[in-house]
Amino acid sequence: xxxxxxxxxxxxxxxxxxxxxxxxxxxxxxxxxxxxxxxxxxxxxxxxxxxxxxxxxxxxxxxxxxxxxxxxxxxxxxxxxxxxxxxxxxxxxxxxxxxxxxxxxxxxxxxxxxxxxxxxxxxxxxxxxxxxxxxxxxxxxxxxxxxxxxxxxxxxxxxxxxxxxxxxxxxxxxxxxxxxxxxxxxxxxxxxxxxxxxxxxxxxxxxx
Length: 208
Fold this sequence. Notes:
It is built from 5 helices and 8 strands, in the order αααββββαβββαβ. The chain is α/β, with parallel strands linked by helices. Strands 4-1-6-5-8 form a 5-stranded mixed β-sheet, sandwiched between helices. A 3-stranded antiparallel β-sheet has the order 3-2-7, with no helix packed on it.
């Protein structure tokens, strides 16, 4: 592995450890994630051939200009084009498009493919960008973060559903009979706009 690939892998590992530290409720796991970050720091020091203080700055609490968080979701239709693939979120028991926060080390399309696989068991192929929504400009519930939502049209390559551990259920739903939506993640108005865009064959991107 060359230095560039090693550096990217270590950044990815550090991001995974950070995610674990945020979401774990176990003191045991907390200790392990902290240890992982220490090991990653040591490896990055060697990879960069730099002194520890230089590497340590990469792992410090961010003090630079704050930026928006990115939520990436996949819009997947059934083979007949009449139903939309949705997942039931653990957070509120309501339904959304497969997806979530963009992971470090993955492009937007790679995030969409990965989230579909992990949450639904379905392999998909990215087709095109459908929308970039500024969450503030839509009537979502209040949000701590400033969020951009990227919606990518994907084609299902497989049919067998295998529910992931991080969702409650998975299913295809007709637009005329959508389940209760997780409005923190997706709104009915957005679903209708996305579906209309696809079914009308329009190749524009919904912005803001």
